[in-house]
Amino acid sequence: MKLDFQGKTVFDVGAYVGIFTMFFARAVGRTGKVIAFEPNPRNYDELAYNVKLNDLDNVTIMKIGLGRGNEQMALAVDPIFPARGTLEKDRKGRMLRKGGARSVAIEVSSLDSLMETMKLPRPDFVKLDVEGFEMDVLYGMVETINNCKPNLLVELPNREILVKIIEFLLSKRYSIYHIKSGTEIASLDSPVVKEGHHVFCK
User: Fold this and answer.
1) Based on the domain organization, do 103 and 193 belong to the same domain?
2) Which of 23, 63, 128, 130 has its CB 3.0 to 4.6 Å from that of 14, i.e. a possible disulfide?
3) Which residues constitute the domain of residue 171?
4) Do 103 and 140 lie in a common domain?
5) How far apart are CA 88 and CA 40, in angstroms?
6) Strand partners, 34
7) Any idea what DSSP says for residue 48?
8) ∠ CA 72-168-17 to the nearest 5 degrees?
């Protein structure tokens, strides 16, 4: 809420049904743009409905997942919460063992590839919430990070992934802040590394 998004381009990666997408669409204003990525077919349909319902003509939605490269993958869908899905191997295995669980074939592409082939606008801000697949997405957007230096908001499902993300982003000269405490994470020795949650990177 404290950030100025006016006129900027925001990528909502893992848009779900558009809760953040709708916030960003209003925050960037008429001169800004929002690109929302959501591979789960059920979520995508609701996302498209919400965008249309709210007349958000500055939003483009893409039915594709982001990752390291271009391929078709199986998205494991939770039987109790069908809007929840994961591509991350260990979590996917646990999810598919649940009664009634299923997998859905989805298209996955690297952001770097889409930037070139789809001529996407340069992102100023990227929100990343992909249920354990964060490092794959980041590895697939290295050139975008190097060329555009977007600010990032990343949800972190566990400490193991948090450590990898911190190492990666510090190597890219990002300043990383633990949102819940407002503390800067300058190294892996920071006490808040144990807590996880969300980080803001600039």
Assistant:
1) no
2) 130
3) 158-202
4) yes
5) 14
6) 10, 59
7) H
8) 45
